[in-house]
Amino acid sequence: MQSIENYNFSGKRAIIRVDFNVPLDADFKVTDATRIRAAIPTIKKVLEKGGSAILMSHLGRPKGVTDKFSLKHIIYKIEELLGVKIIFAEDCQNAAAQAAALKPGEVLLLENLRFYAEEDGKPRGLAEDATAEDKAAAKKVIKESQKTFVKTLASYADCYINDAFGTAHRAHSSTALIAEYFANDKMFGYIMENELKAIDAVLLDAKKPFTAILGGSKVSTKITIIESLMERADNLVLGGGMTFTFVAAMGGKIGNSLCEKDQYEMALDILAKAKAKGVNIYLPFDTLSGESFSNDCATLITPSDEIPDGWLGLDIGPKAIEDFSKVIENSSTILWNGPVGVFEMDTFAAGSRAIAESIVKATENGAFSLIGGGDSVACINKLGLADKVSYVSTGGGALLEYMEGKVLPGVAAIKA
Ligand code: AMP
Fold this sequence. Notes:
46% of the residues are buried. The strands form 4 sheets. The protein has a 6-stranded parallel sheet with strand order 3-4-2-1-5-6, with helices on both faces. Helices cover 35% and strands 16% of the residues. The protein folds into 2 domains: 13-188, 3-Layer(aba) Sandwich (Rossmann fold); 197-403, Rossmann fold, CATH 3.40.50. By secondary structure, it is α/β, with parallel strands linked by helices. It has helices at residues 34-48, 75-82, 96-100, 132-155, 190-203, 223-230, 243-249, 264-277, 318-329, 350-364, 374-382, 396-403, 409-415; strands spanning 13-17, 52-56, 86-89, 107-110, 159-162, 186-188, 210-214, 235-238, 253-254, 280-282, 286-290, 299-303, 306-307, 312-316, 333-337, 368-371, 391-392. Adenosine monophosphate binds at residues 215-218, 221, 240-241, 258, 313-314, 338-339, 341-342, 344, 375.
């Protein structure tokens, strides 16, 4: 397999799939440039080694050409962070002349790939009452035109770099299909390399004790990952809205807390499996409840299975914080996915803050810690502790699928 470190980029054009799907405000200013900043080392490496770069990305979920989702809005930010003038191709499918004219050190940015349905290969504009045959026919048409789309993108460059971990779980044109045109000239960028290294350190090479902390709202979305982690972790610390399904399934009183009644059996099954495997499951002993779902409501601390009617459990309680912190601080490998409370409201952020602080402490004592999955990343960023843990993953869905043991098309296409 080629690597960005060893590849000879001199005089070559590299087409790089980046993840520039960044949030914009009403004036089209970038409000969080983390993803652009993260892609800079890969782009710089290509340029420093005498190559030119063709950047391609999606932005939002446009259903066709939409000014609001144009990548032209973020050019100023890329230029600011990269320190190189950006040449812009207003149509990603008509950029051959601009690509051919690129000189070493130059950077061409292609317009939003998702202006074309061919990027994800899913038919658009089907009537609501379309029959199964109509759908199959439309799919066939788009799959055919997708081949041309991919071929056109590939024709711009001499080599392909995938540095978009956030979309690695999608088998899209730019994230996977294009790789087949670059049998010996395809590689991961630094983000991809680092993500895979960090996740593999946790999944394949975890020093024990390995503790996984899982939070978030619903247990139904975390079942596969809980089951997959049960094969590897010594301790599973559960927090957040999903714990109330466990507590209720065991007969506890959870008031009006989040609960998925159809998951009771699943919850009990998870507890039984963990016991059989010798995996310690930690549920919060106590809970901080609110009288309503708001920051300035009345609050109450009770055991997690004694929440009065009408109250909602919105954060773990002080005894749970103490218990969880002890487990975390005695761990050598830590994975955190999902806040243990409604951290967006300060009143219910103490639990997640304590978890983050314990992870930082463990990391300072030599543990490897990986934080991943949308909301836990937002949480660690909000607390300003992101640079005090071993690795913060940029890929929400991709990270979860990889940890669930699924093959990511974007990864497989490079390794093939
Ligand atoms: P998820 O996307 O499933 O990881 O869920 C993340 C969301 O779960 C965050 O927005 C939290 O506010 C929310 N959350 C965490 N704990 C609770 C809770 N006890 N009740 C309701 N929502 C919660």
